[in-house]
Amino acid sequence: MKWTKIRIKTTTQAEDIIISSLYDLGLEGAQIEDKVPLTAWEKEQMFVDILPETGEDDGVAYLSFFVEEDASDEIDIILENVKRELEELSSFLDIGEGTIEVGETEDLDWINNWKQYFHQFYIDDILVVPSWETVSPGETARLILHIDPGTAFGTGMHETTQLCIRGLRKYITPHTRMLDVGTGSGILSVLALMMGAKYAVGTDLDPCAVEAVAENCCANGIDRKRFLLHIGNIITDAKLQEEVGYGCWDIVTANILADVLVPLTPVIAKCLVPGGVYITSGIIEDKEGIVTEAILQAGLEVTEVAYQGEWVGITARKP
Length: 319
Prior knowledge:
The protein is of the alpha/beta class. It has helices spanning 15-24, 40-46, 75-90, 107-112, 159-168, 187-194, 208-219, 238-244, 258-271, 288-297, and strands at 2-11, 31-34, 60-68, 99-106, 121-123, 126-129, 143-146, 177-181, 199-204, 227-231, 249-255, 272-284, 301-308, 311-317.
């Protein structure tokens, strides 16, 4: 589907008021482009692993609104209303330039534009390569991981994923049975299997993980019999807990937000074998304490705490 795109150049301080005013005109779902640094809370809530480099905040913001092609015959009226609203706002608010650009876009642009921010990169001696790039001749990486996140989390760029990967490689053996809660793209399980683990099971709430996991297993030559995926909430779904199994996992990974790790951890403690390892991340610095407390309350022992950027990874072991 094609859309008419209305893009307004304004100031970061005027963003919310302009969006609210244009919402009253019937324009919804604003796309915001600015260089305002994300707060810790925003990073935790977004929990995305591909973010563009924005540079320093310059106070400038671009607000884009999209009008369906079917309504494009009304675009002149919509633009007049937008101009009038901006003029009224400028009488008491600094809206910056307040200029308006009109263009056209397609759904396909929204699906694929994120790819411009994702190029092959290293995690220590692991080279991560997306499908639209080729490995350079003579590349000497220990492991080459082909990964396409699609709409599921997990490319390896996010600090939390890297914390989990570094934790994983300390414990993988040819006998390792691994449970990956919140598997997303499957990156942790795929890498574990590439490192020599015997078997992996993933769980995720998002059905998008099914296609992402299938594609990433195929791209890396992983036999799907070695990686089973369940869609569901292992915290609340007793049937899923039984299917996954109690007391049978050598390693459990959970790269999830701290507020989810707290209720999840007692469930994971039941899934681990004695001596089993629990590798967590997704923990913003100021929530390290609540996750550590949940781990201890579940009867596990904290063996390592690692930091990268604003994020924390905690590894624990079941006695």
